[in-house]
Amino acid sequence: MRQTPTLRVLTLAMLAVATVASTGCFKRGARGDYALAPEARPLEVPLDLNLPNTSGATSIPALASATRPAPAAATANSQSGFTVSGSRDEVFGKVGDALSTIEGVNIASRAQLLGSYDIGYEGSNFLVRVVAVEAGAYVSAVDPRGMPATDAAAVKLIAALKGKLAG
After folding, report:
1. What is d(CA 121, CA 141) in angstroms, rounded to the nearest whole number?
2. 66 or 100, which is more confident?
3. Which of 58, 81, 97, 156 is least enclosed, having the fewest CB within 10 Å?
4. Residue 129's beta-bridge partner residues?
C-alpha cells in the first residue's frame, strides 16, 4: 500500500502530538520548582545542617598520668612520695644515682621521658616516678594500677630515697 504525502504528513503530526502529550509538557506545574518565584520555592537545607551535633562525642578524657600530683603541702604526710627542689631532669638523675646505692634495688628499666623507674625491691614491683611540680619535682612510688604504692617495700624505699636526696 502506497501512502500519499498528505497521509504521511498527517501520520507524523499525530505521532508528534502523541509524543508531546505523553511527556507531560502541557501539564499544569510541570515546569518544576525552578520556575517559581524565589519566595515561593521550597526551602533547601544544606546537608551539614541536618546532621546531628557530634562535637561532644569525640572528647577524650585526660590520662591519669598527665595530671599533676597534689601540691607539696598536701603530700607532706604521704608515705608514698615527697618533693625535692630542682628541675625534673636533675631530680631524675639524682634518683637514679640514689637507687643504685640502695641494697636490694633492682632497676628493671628506666624511662627519662616518662620520668619513671621500674623497680623490683623486697619482692615487690612498682614504679618510682619523678613529676615536675611548682616547688620542684615530686618523687613517688606507684603500684601497677597507677595508684600510690602503700606496701611496706615501697614505703621503705621512698623513705630511703627521701633520706638520700634531702640530706
Report:
1. 12
2. 100
3. 58
4. 116, 140
